[in-house]
Structure prediction request, 305 residues.
Amino acid sequence: MRFEDKIAKLRIEKHDGRETSEFLVDVKKLCDGEAIEYLLGQVDFCDAKVDLSLRPMIPRPETEFWVREAIEEMNEGLGMKDEEAREQVKPVRVLDIFSGSGCVGLAVLKNIPNSNVTFIELAPHLKEQIEISIKKNKFDENRIEVLTGDTFDPLARSFLALDPARKDPLGVIPMKMGIQVKNLKNTDLDPRFREDDINTEHNNKFDYIFAVPPYVPPQMKDEVMKELTAETPLCFFDKEDGFFYIKKVLNEVRNYLNIRGELFIEFDITQREKIEELIKENKFENYSFLKDPYGHECVVRIKMD
Prediction:
């Protein structure tokens, strides 16, 4: 977007078309490198309102493009396009990991009426950010769970349903969702917990899992942050070579994805060849690639057979 178009957008959308003193302050911030999305305070993403008041990573139009395509296919597969059949469709469980602003899970909630979404985000303040957007969109909170942690870790912790009378020195909090347990021995548990502490009432598997992980190698930090000065580096950078989190997801996803479920992982277009290598190493056979608006393959969709 051209600079003059950003100024016009600010004037119209935030300042009711008036050039007030507050408007001039925002123009100065824009000149100093502030992102217009942060100045506006929110963006629309697949028709959902995504609040940016706590400065999460700004949702990208490239991500919105493939998420909209995925949602359309989900609705078609679930029979949601047939209004008469909607009431017969069972609830679909969706997991949004590396949630950030929550834009992907929020888009699912907005566009798939029978969806229940679990968000997992590492940064504690972004849990609050997602909750702000949930209220802004007036979603039914019974459809939603927002957890703090790294990748699938909060789901692994949902093994543990603590006795309220016992104090937990590590701060592990019982989650709403339990987990199916097979062949679990006491030796597999933290010594503070007994086998009867395990909550097996529910399972923690999902029909769809969306992952937009940090995938930029850390050695590119200086170069990348020259262009993205307004955003927090944690949003973008992988721990190692750009594949640490992608490998983690591929290695662990079978524990959390239902049979015939689908996993979507976004990656950089330069990583396409390596991504396919990792998929084959993990013995996934049913997969395909989605493209961004410019025709580049940037997302892999894996179906669990």
Q: What stands out?
A: Confidence is low (pLDDT under 50) at residues 159-202. Residues 113 and 166 are 39 Å apart (CA to CA). The beta strands are 42-45, 48-51, 92-97, 115-121, 144-148, 206-211, 257-266, 287-291, 297-303. The chain has three domains: 1-40, 45-153+204-303, 159-202.
